[in-house]
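Renewal narrative, Specific Aim 1. Our central claim is that a sequence can be written position by position from structural information alone. The example that follows is taken directly from our test logs and has not been curated for this report. It begins with the structure tokens describing the chain, in the order in which they were read.
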């Protein structure tokens, strides 16, 4: 197989079509791979929207995170394990076997030349899927790229089971350690761990990207302020994230309080459905802060109302963006703000921000440990109330983003990975015999 020529590429992912980082980056990879004249096939557990035509995309419900079966698996593997591991281990073994068989059949039926996994060999939110992928890649010998965003060891003890047999399955599946695999990660911290701890010396860093050649939407459409009851002259600070604890939204609320301007509105795009324990405790904490600071009319949870607008319709209406996360594998919202030419106020989130992004030359207001000093607030005020300065920052950051985080960078990196795969021993990739559907 010559990866410089047109090849048939199969991508597997848990869910796609939504606003989470893995799904968004997978769509970008598909777009760039198609521009490179490759034919892409997609296998996903959930489609929030159609990505390809029906001949090239297929649903596999076993991948879904929302199924009762997967919730049961997570409960018994990690959250509330039974005393005996036999039932959960047998379940994972049987389900992963079915998944492996279906993946192998799909690869054969579509004559797939190259296999790409999206975060499936990194975070065991569907452990049977991770184990099934491992079995399929090992049995077929198909050349594989694992595109991994965040790993289980970055989540504390969330994916540590009291059953050693479950932990062994996690270690066997994640990261994918096979001779026909090139591991791709999105930051240098993950690369270092895979190289030093797992001896995966060929691990490649490919950052998240934007298509900087697209026209930037810079006009706020009239329907947007009307939908959310905004007045002429309101100043929108955009928090373009889901409502989950690590996003540091309480710091953005504190900022609105310290700015002490009734015209400033904090606009939160996401919802709290992805909060891990389902208790909405973080959302309740934010509501408490809003009441405490008397900001009920200044903090807007957009929720479902935002569905009628594109992501960049929302950016176009913003003055500036807040992004005070504690932790991110990369941080899509930062690059989105850069693309939209909007200033951004950011916490130096671990493990990547300054080393992998901030140090590239962006003009930003950055805080440490989510502490809003008086100095930082004054710098933020200067940006918010100075249109010429905002435009200058926007143009400057756009050019930096284009240099380091563009589709052209993604294409160059993919070609580098293809070269690595082509150089691997041909014996590691035996020819598949297509199977009947």
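The sequence written for that structure reads:
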């Amino acid at each position: 197989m010559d990866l410089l020529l047109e090849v048939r590429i199969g991508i597997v992912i848990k869910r796609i079509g939504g606003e989470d980082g893995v799904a968004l980056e997978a769509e970008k990879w598909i777009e760039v791979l198609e521009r490179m004249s490759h034919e892409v096939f997609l296998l996903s557990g959930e489609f929030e929207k159609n990505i390809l035509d029906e001949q090239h995309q297929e649903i596999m419900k076993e991948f879904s995170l929302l199924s009762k079966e997967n919730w049961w698996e997570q409960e018994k593997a990690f959250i509330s394990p039974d005393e005996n591991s036999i039932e959960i281990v047998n379940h994972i073994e049987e389900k992963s076997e079915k998944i492996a068989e279906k993946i192998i059949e799909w690869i054969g039926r579509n004559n797939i030349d190259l296999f790409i996994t999206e975060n499936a060999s990194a975070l065991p939110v569907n452990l049977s899927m991770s184990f099934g992928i491992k079995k399929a890649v090992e049995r077929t010998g198909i050349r594989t790229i694992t595109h991994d965003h965040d790993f289980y060891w970055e989540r504390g003890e969330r994916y540590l089971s009291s059953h050693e047999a479950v932990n062994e399955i996690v270690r066997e599946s994640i990261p994918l350690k096979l001779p026909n695999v090139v591991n791709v990660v999105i930051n240098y911290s993950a690369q270092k761990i895979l190289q030093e701890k797992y001896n995966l010396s060929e691990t490649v860093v490919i950052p998240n990207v934007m298509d900087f050649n697209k026209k930037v939407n810079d006009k706020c459409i009239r329907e947007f302020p009307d939908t959310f009851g905004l007045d002429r002259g309101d100043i929108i600070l955009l928090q373009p994230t889901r409502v989950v604890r690590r996003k540091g939204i309480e710091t953005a609320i504190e900022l609105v309080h310290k700015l002490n301007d009734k015209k400033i509105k904090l606009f939160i795009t996401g919802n709290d459905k992805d909060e891990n324990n389902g208790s909405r405790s973080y959302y309740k904490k934010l509501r408490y802060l809003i009441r405490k600071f008397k900001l009920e009319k200044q903090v807007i949870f957009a929720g479902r109302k935002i569905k009628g607008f594109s992501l960049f319709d929302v950016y176009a209406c913003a003055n500036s963006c807040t992004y005070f996360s504690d932790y991110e594998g990369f941080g899509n919202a930062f690059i989105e703000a850069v693309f939209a030419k909007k200033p951004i106020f950011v916490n130096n989130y671990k493990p990547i921000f300054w080393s992998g992004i901030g140090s590239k030359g962006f003009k930003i207001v950055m805080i440490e440990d989510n502490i809003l000093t008086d100095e930082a607030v004054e710098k933020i005020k200067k940006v918010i109330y100075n249109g010429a300065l905002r435009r200058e920052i926007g143009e400057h950051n756009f050019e930096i983003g284009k240099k380091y985080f563009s589709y052209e960078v993604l294409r160059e990196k993919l070609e580098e990975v293809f070269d690595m795969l082509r150089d691997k021993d041909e014996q590691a990739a035996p020819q598949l015999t297509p199977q009947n559907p």
